[in-house]
Specification:
Helices cover 41% and strands 21% of the residues. The protein is an alpha/beta fold and 215 residues long. The protein has a 7-stranded mixed sheet, sandwiched between helices. The longest helix is centred in the middle third of the chain and has 14 residues, at 77-90. Bound molecules: S-adenosylmethionine.
């Protein structure tokens, strides 16, 4: 059933390049990763997806959690248009999308949870603390922010990830955070952080940060 959900999301995009990207993206972040991240999301309430891209993950978590309202934000207008169209085609009225820059994100009310999947390394480092603080303000005490990003170590895995990031989006700046540095920034923004590696068959240094908003 779940892999059928993934297939129907991929079919909802017309552009063969986007479909190919989605196969690769879902191929890398396998079902196990979707479940690993999804287990921390609440079943109901608004959930923010910062840097949502084409909407792959927000569409998945909207389809598998009809009580949630997924709210995706991305700086790329074309990706937002594709995400909106895919949501319409899939009949998901609990996934909505907005074009905007994460650097300007201030939050506009309380949400049940938020996540950022492979976006922190695309945001200029000086803007990350303000973004994390804005996310903290949107969450109730105990509310979760999930961050999936890549570590700087081991170096060989970082270079592998960098080469793929540059192949996908050559002009997009990339700056990886070491796991201790990002955990410290999250802590400084008011989160209690648990982090663990997400082991992959490909040499990605994935780290999942499970962050709970402190009082
Ligand atoms: C590697 S993609 C990840 C997309 C999606 N989270 C996923 O996991 O498939 C990074 C995304 O971040 C978006 N992005 C980069 N800088 C951004 C910014 N300053 N504000 C909002 N989105 C941004 C890009 O447009 C792109 O869609």
């Amino acid at each position: 059933m779940r892999s059928e959900t993934v297939r129907s999301i991929i079919r909802s995009y017309d552009d063969p390049v986007v479909r190919a990207y989605c196969w690769v993206r879902f191929g890398i972040l396998r079902q196990r990763f979707l479940d690993e991240i999804g287990q921390y999301l609440p079943e109901t309430g608004p959930v923010l997806d910062i840097g949502c891209g084409f909407g792959l993950f927000s569409l998945y978590y909207a389809a598998t959690g009809p009580g949630r309202l997924l709210r995706g934000l991305d700086v790329d207008a074309r990706r937002i248009a594709l995400a909106r169209r895919a949501a319409r085609r899939l009949g998901l009225d609990n996934a909505v999308y907005e074009e905007g820059d994460a650097r300007d994100f201030k939050g506009d009310g309380e949400v049940a949870a938020a996540y950022m999947l492979d976006i922190v390394h695309h945001v200029p480092p000086a803007s990350v603390p303000a973004l994390l603080a804005a996310l903290r303000r949107c969450l109730p005490p105990g509310g979760r922010l999930l961050v999936k990003d890549v570590d700087t170590r081991p170096a060989a895995k970082r270079w592998f990830t960098w080469a793929l990031d540059k192949a996908m989006a050559p002009r997009t700046p990339v700056r990886y955070w070491s796991a201790p540095a990002l955990a410290s920034a999250l802590d400084g923004a008011g989160f209690t952080v648990h982090r663990h590696l997400m082991v992959d068959v490909l040499p990605y240094p994935h780290v999942l940060y499970v962050c709970e908003a402190r009082r």
